[in-house]
Design brief:
heterodimer; A: alpha+beta; 4-stranded antiparallel sheet; 6 helices; B: Rossmann fold; Rossmann fold; 3 domains; 6-stranded parallel sheet; globular
Chain lengths: 205, 591
């Protein structure tokens, strides 16, 4: 199954190697890994999605935490979270494409339905930008392909994740920010069961 | 902060030593070379004793042995390139056994980093998976904070090796040295043990309900310095204690509750007790495959409480019912008052006594004593078991069991040592457990002797492993220290031969090994020695070695094709052991 970890790490050289090397050593394949700045100076935020057996999550999380460069690790499990991905898609659209002169207007319509944006328009192609759950991006790509559009290039960022609502406090707490709820984090900690389905269940379906 | 009067400006090399002195280091093990020469140039200004080894692997093992014997952080130093790569086996050995060592390596100048300069190697890349953490210092002002953080990381939490790679220009440049200001942020233990946790309640309920508990005593007891707490715990609740290889010494072997070593070569009653237990209390151990046998059939009737500082060990091999994360000593001290608190957790009636269980275990010992080679009259054969037993008897007779440290390699001699040397005291066994490193014993013994000069230190090694690092005999002589060496010489790579006998149809491919005359080899180093071939000579030679004014080597020519028993075949269940063959019957067949 897919696991999603959010890891706050030092913003220093070699940090990515340490994290990536850990997954290599555990023989776990990384599906996607995004890194960027977080709300705090000197701390990067990584969202790591990996394919591993269900029971492996606790160990991966604990191993991530063992790295000296790691400040905190959160495993999203089935918790309610916003999971997003950015995708750029370049589609052939010009007089010689299968849909000919109509291809552009058709693409505009599709983009509208999928809430994608046209970010580049060239004589022979159109670039679409789309943000959303992986399933929606895959949906757009599928429609494009089945409509006989020629997809020239696809670039996806991989998933970024953030817990909804109060859960954010847990991360802030780990970073030393004061929150009303000051109960320490214990291990092994099961993620809260939420009524709402995980984003990935939808993706996998 | 930058008051130059209060804080001197020093070279990076001087900062390195000054920081080590500040961290309480008195002895380092190392080998000089080009990229670390600036550091060596400054060494003599500082009150640090440098032990020149004969190979950098020896330096890492010595730092390791030093750390195991003393509980302090061991320090190894090497130059860049091959000096650094030679450390790798030693670092990995320390990693697998959670030993706090700090390795310092020279590196080419930062200007040429990444250019494949002479003796340049990416040692931080190489050691990434075998260190707890590693650093590169390219500027002199980075050295003090990095060394200080390295010491903290090495010794805190679950200990382990840390490497600091220092470029030549960082050693040569100058910076203001401020030891206090270079202190790292305080160690932050992650998963805090909460007294009021569901896990703690469940642990205490399980304890109260148990009729057949067994404590699995691991290396964590020694690392946490919780020997007294574990002893008190076992005695108060009358729980028998089985020990892992690295846990030997954590619980006194002669104690009525001590079962002995568990696992692949553990005694049968120990493993049977674990298989029949209804509760396992795992104290600072990690359910290694050598300890569990086949996982599917491991202690099926037992609930398991795992007290462990490293959360990544929980449910790694064996699924446990309760995990208490934290320093063992703290956890036990937290747990203790709660166990007796009737208002805490649900009280499953009055606690069960373990009298019946202890009686049952005593019965399990059965005919083991009859089979034990130690109890046989002298039949003209010299068994390694006798040698080890006599070394133990000698230490016991001299009243120096608490002041005798044994260092072993890996293999048959290591298992015989674990079986026949009864360790009463903590930190008296220095052995490579997790990585199983041949060649570990001799340098580790040297490190242990440097840490504990008041102790009798024995290096017990096989004829194979001893030859891997025998050059360190010269280090012994240069240091003028008294380390006793017992070579258990059976002319084979013994454990390999035993496996070939058991699982490869006696196809002894490349396991017979030719050795030099070890007594002459010692003599060439100026170390006296003796060759022992008969059982009756063992005790007097061992006494001679122990009381000798200098180092002493004994070459014990033991039974060639002797095996370590009991033995659990890989993949077999813990109780399905190959028992020790009954020597009385065997001898009768022979003749």
């Amino acid at each position: 199954m897919l696991h999603t970890f959010v890891s706050l790490v030092d913003d220093k050289p070699g940090v990515l190697t340490r994290v990536a090397s850990l997954f290599r050593r555990l023989n776990v394949n990384i599906v996607s890994l995004t890194v960027g700045e977080s709300e705090r100076d000197g701390v990067s935020r990584m969202t790591i999605v990996c394919e591993a057996p269900e029971h492996a999550a606790d160990r991966i999380r604990a191993s991530l935490y063992k790295l000296e460069i790691t400040r905190d690790v959160d495993e999203l499990g089935r918790a309610e979270a916003v999971i997003r991905e950015l995708c750029l898609i370049k589609v052939a659209a010009g007089p010689t494409t299968p849909h000919g002169q109509h291809s552009r207007s058709q693409l505009f319509e599709l983009a509208n339905v999928f809430r994608a944006r046209v970010v580049d328009l060239a004589p022979e192609s159109i670039m679409l930008e789309m943000t959303g759950a992986a399933s929606k991006i895959e949906g757009l790509l599928q429609v494009l392909r089945e409509s006989k559009f020629e997809v020239l290039e696809v670039s996806r960022t991989g998933r970024m994740a953030m817990r909804r609502g109060r859960h954010t406090g847990r991360v802030l707490k780990a970073l030393g920010t004061k929150t009303p709820d000051t109960a320490p984090v214990a291990f092994p900690e099961r993620p809260d069961e939420d009524d709402l389905p995980n984003q990935f269940d939808e993706d996998e379906a | 902060m930058t008051d130059k009067n209060a804080h001197p400006t020093l070279t990076g090399a001087e900062i390195l030593w000054a920081t080590l002195v500040g961290e309480g280091v008195t002895t380092v093990f190392g080998y000089p070379g080009g990229a670390i020469l600036p550091a060596y140039d400054a060494l003599r200004k500082f009150p640090i004793h440098h032990v020149l080894t004969r190979h950098e692997q020896g330096a890492a093992h010595m730092a390791d042995g030093y750390a195991r014997a003393s509980g302090k952080v061991g320090v190894a130093i090497a130059t860049s390139g091959p000096g650094a790569t030679n450390l790798v086996t030693g670092i990995a050995t320390a990693m697998l056994d959670s030993i706090p060592i700090v390795c310092i390596t020279g590196q080419v100048s930062s200007k040429v980093l990444g250019s494949d300069a002479f003796q340049e190697i990416d040692i931080t890349g190489i050691t990434l998976p075998i260190t707890k953490h590693n650093f590169v210092a390219t500027r002199p002002e980075e050295i003090a904070p990095m060394i200080r953080e390295a010491f903290q990381i090495a010794a805190s939490g679950r200990p382990g090796p840390v490497l600091v790679d220092i470029t030549k220009d960082a050693q040569q440049g100058t910076a203001i040295f401020d030891f206090e200001n270079a202190a790292p942020a305080p160690y932050r233990p992650h998963p805090m043990l909460r007294t009021e946790s569901a896990e703690m309640q469940r642990a205490i309920e399980l304890m109260r309900g148990s009729k057949k508990p067994v404590i699995l005593a691991g290396h964590g007891i020694i690392l946490s310095a919780a020997e007294r707490e574990v002893l008190a715990f076992a005695e108060r609740y009358q729980i028998p204690v089985a020990t892992t290889l690295l846990g030997l010494g954590a619980f006194p072997a002669s104690h009525p509750l001590a079962l002995g070593m568990m696992g692949m070569h553990g005694e049968s009653w120990v493993n049977h007790a674990i298989q029949q237990a209804d509760l396992l209390l795992a104290f600072g151990m990690r359910f290694d495959d050598r300890v569990t046998g086949n996982l599917a059939s491991y202690a099926q009737n037992a609930k398991k409480i795992h007290i462990e500082i490293d959360p990544s060990e929980i449910n790694k091999n064996v699924k446990v019912d309760v995990a208490l994360i934290g320093d063992l000593k703290e956890v036990l001290n937290t747990m203790e008052p709660l166990i007796n608190d009737k208002n805490y957790a649900s009280d499953a009636g009055s606690r069960n006594t373990t009298t019946d269980w202890l009686r049952e275990i005593r019965a399990l010992k059965g005919d083991a004593a009859v089979r034990d080679i130690i109890n046989l009259p002298d039949n003209g054969h010299l068994y390694a078991a006798h040698v080890i037993n006599d070394i133990w008897q000698e230490a016991k007779a001299a009243g120096r069991l608490d002041k005798t440290i044994i260092a072993t390699d890996v293999g048959q001699h290591q298992m015989w040592e674990a079986q026949y040397f009864k360790h009463e005291n903590t930190r008296t066994l220095v052995t490579s457990g997790g990585l199983g490193t041949m060649g570990f014993a001799l340098p580790a013994a040297i490190g242990a002797k440097m840490a504990r000069p008041d102790c009798d230190v024995w290096c017990i090694a096989g004829d194979g492993g001893f030859q891997m690092t025998a050059s360190e005999l010269s280090t012994i002589q240069q240091e003028g220290i008294h380390v006793n060496v017992a070579v258990i010489n059976n002319g084979f790579l013994g454990m390999v031969r035993q496996w070939q006998e058991a699982f490869y149809d006696k196809n002894y491919a490349c396991s017979p090994i030719l050795s030099p005359d070890f007594v002459k080899l010692a003599g060439a180093h100026g170390i006296p020695g003796a060759h022992v071939t008969e059982r009756k000579e063992v005790t007097q030679t061992v006494t001679e070695a122990r009381t000798a004014p200098t180092a002493f080597l004994i070459n014990f020519s033991v039974e060639k094709e002797d095996g370590v028993y009991p033995m659990i075949a890989p993949g077999a269940a813990l109780h399905e052991m190959v028992r020790r063959p009954n020597p009385l019957i065997e001898t009768a067949e022979d003749e």
